[in-house]
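debug: dumping io for the single-chain case to check the tokenizer round-trip. Nothing else runs in this session.
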Amino acid sequence: MAKYRVVEPSAVIQGGRAWQVGDVVELTDKQAADLGGVVERESRVDRQERVALETVAAESKPRRKPEPEGDGE
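debug: decoded output
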């Protein structure tokens, strides 16, 4: 069994409730393959999210103004 994250809306119901995008579920590789693109192995999803977050952070990072030289008097 491995952890998978739901990445597409699905009608799969487990434990009395429908899976929502972002849920983490434990499945065998065969079960995940049977679901097609509904789930992705969690480690792969985490890596994609981390890269996306790093990209957004780098793009939105405020640029610091250079410190004025001198003693400020």
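debug: round-trip ok. The mean pLDDT is 78.
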